[in-house]
Design brief:
Layout: E1 7-12, H1 18-27, E2 32-38, H2 42-57, E3 66-67, H3 71-75, E4 82-85, H4 92-101, E5 105-108, H5 116-128, E6 133-135, H6 143-153, E7 160-168, H7 188-205, E8 208-216, E9 221-223, E10 233-235, E11 241-248, E12 253-259, E13 270-276, E14 280-282
Parallel strand pairs: 1-2, 1-4, 2-3, 4-5, 5-6, 7-12
Antiparallel strand pairs: 7-13, 8-11, 9-10, 11-12, 13-14
């Protein structure tokens, strides 16, 4: 079998989530190759490169990525085929739009953009330029949800009539090193974790045709108790208590509840159930 060259990727944003990407790109997925990184805070880019060097010293077969002075240097690098957008949610639109305008495919952390208008514009731009966009909620491709899909396809729970999804916790400021952005535009529990649930629901049930919801902010500010920002306060901009329903083309209705406002047992904070005419399935 003829070998294929790995897809060349530039990482924009080297924050907390970058660690798992650096690990997997370097050690697991040989179809992609990280050629460079960029961050508004240069020390983060340097730390990312050092992480890759440590993996290489441990035996990983990967190049040492270069450090771009800004994202435009990455976009203008002819070696780069795909831009990996790991910036803060409210920055996703601007970074992805600029990458597409420079002729690069984009894989973005969730959400695709901070609102529907921005997301729709990005989709149109990608189509116009014949470029591909991918998004982080790819967990539906894993063994758990693919098994759930087979259970539904094989008719084991009958026709799907409804679903319930919930993510109940008291917020990331107790553990996340930089939780501020999760309470700004594009943040909040629905934009942070909701994409995983909604993507899985569409994969399992089909096209969504309607949404109704009620949302609020329960607290005007949050106290950070994680390092390195222990003791600092966050002004809350995003809604943090969201409950709603999604109607699907086949008539099924899914209830979705996400919150950063509630104290709840950690072993029960996530819930995903699918209801059928012959049975109920607990989705991992």
């Amino acid at each position: 079998m003829a070998s294929t060259n790995p897809v060349k990727v530039a990482m924009i944003g080297v924050g907390a989530i970058s660690g798992i990407y650096l690990k997997n790109i370097t050690n697991v997925f040989k179809e992609v190759e990280l050629v460079g990184v960029c961050d508004l805070i240069p020390e983060r880019a340097e730390k990312g490169v050092q992480t890759v060097k440590e993996y290489i010293e441990a035996g990983a077969k990967a190049p040492v990525p270069k450090i771009y002075k800004d994202m435009y240097e990455a976009f203008n690098d002819p070696e780069v085929e795909v831009v990996l957008n790991l910036t803060r949610p409210y920055e996703h639109y601007g970074v992805t739009k600029a990458a597409l305008e420079h002729g690069k495919h984009v894989f973005s952390e969730k959400p695709l953009a901070a609102d529907m208008e921005e997301g729709t514009e990005l989709m149109a731009l990608a189509k116009e330029k014949n470029l591909l966009m991918g998004g982080a909620p790819d967990t539906f491709m894993g063994a758990g949800i693919q098994t759930a899909r087979k259970v539904i396809d094989d008719g084991l729970i009958g026709d799907v009539i409804g679903a319930t999804c919930a993510m109940i916790q008291h917020g990331p400021e107790t553990w996340h090193p930089d939780p501020d952005f999760l309470y700004k535009r594009g943040g909040g529990p629905m934009m942070d974790m909701g994409p995983y649930y909604v993507t899985a629901l569409v994969q399992l049930i089909g096209e969504a045709v309607g949404v109704t919801a009620v949302t609020k902010k329960s607290f005007k500010e949050r106290l950070i108790t994680s390092e390195p920002h222990y003791g600092e306060k966050i002004d809350v901009e995003a809604d943090t208590y969201l409950t709603g329903n999604i109607t699907f083309a086949n008539g099924a209705i899914a209830q979705v509840f996400t919150t950063f406002d509630v104290y709840y047992p950690s072993q029960n904070y996530a819930r995903f159930e699918i209801y059928g005419t012959k049975g109920t399935m607990i989705v991992p």
